[in-house]
Amino acid sequence: MNDNDLKKIGGKRPGAGRKSGSGPYMEPTTVIRVPISQKATVSDLLAAYAKKQRISHLKENLDSVEAFDLPALTPVSVSIPLYQSKVPAGFPSPADDHVEKRLDPNAYLIDQADSTFFVTIQGESMIEAGLMPGDKAVVDKSKLPVVGDIVLAMIDGEFTIKTLAKQKDGNPKLLPANSSGKYTPIIIQVPMQFEIWGVVISSFRRFR
């Protein structure tokens, strides 16, 4: 065995190990010794610091939602003509023989009023799913979320709307719908606090 063979044995391989700054504290760490009596206190302090770092890192990929609203307790039924004309733009003929049926917007947007609420979209992470800043997303908390659904999720106390997906190990991840590269998938892992509050079933916006 020559010197070159010896150099190939042992030692750190290039690229091996955890990427610097990817641990729970999002930065390089070092080993310290602490008094046994203070171990619990130091652990709690570090846990709080790790959570703060995670939230700071998450906010780079989160479009937090705002203005949680509930539907009216007694929504008024509104019946509006729904025309058969399938034109890209313009106003369909008002002739009676073009009316397909009458549509109630409340019934169309909402499945179950008692389990539904509205949130206002912020940011542009879901624009390719048709959710633009200022849109009202209709969230139904009674729906069972499945992979591919757009969901309202809470991560470490921060709300966001993303598409639900799964990692290779079966744990969830949240995907943006914006190909600009500004937003990256959010990988859910321990010790993140993660909860899905509801499934986005529709949305609407006002132009004037």
UniProtKB/TrEMBL annotation:
* SUPFAM superfamilies xref list: LexA/Signal peptidase
Q: Keywords for this entry? A: Autocatalytic cleavage, DNA damage, DNA repair, Hydrolase, Nucleotidyltransferase, SOS response, Transferase
Q: Name one GO molecular function term.
A: DNA-directed DNA polymerase activity
Residues in domain Peptidase S24/S26A/S26B/S26C?
81-201
What EC number(s) has UniProt assigned to this enzyme? Answer: 2.7.7.7
Q: Which CDD domains match?
A: S24_LexA-like
Q: Does the keyword DNA repair apply?
A: yes
Keyword DNA damage listed? The answer is yes
Renumbered residue ranges of the record's region Disordered = 1-28
* Listed InterPro entries: LexA-like (IPR039418), LexA/Signal_pep-like_sf (IPR036286), LexA_repressor (IPR050077), Peptidase_S24_LexA (IPR006197), Peptidase_S24_S26A/B/C (IPR015927)
Annotated family: Belongs to the peptidase S24 family.
Q: What is the protein name given in its UniProt record?
A: Translesion error-prone DNA polymerase V autoproteolytic subunit
Which source organism does the UniProt entry give? Methylophilus aquaticus
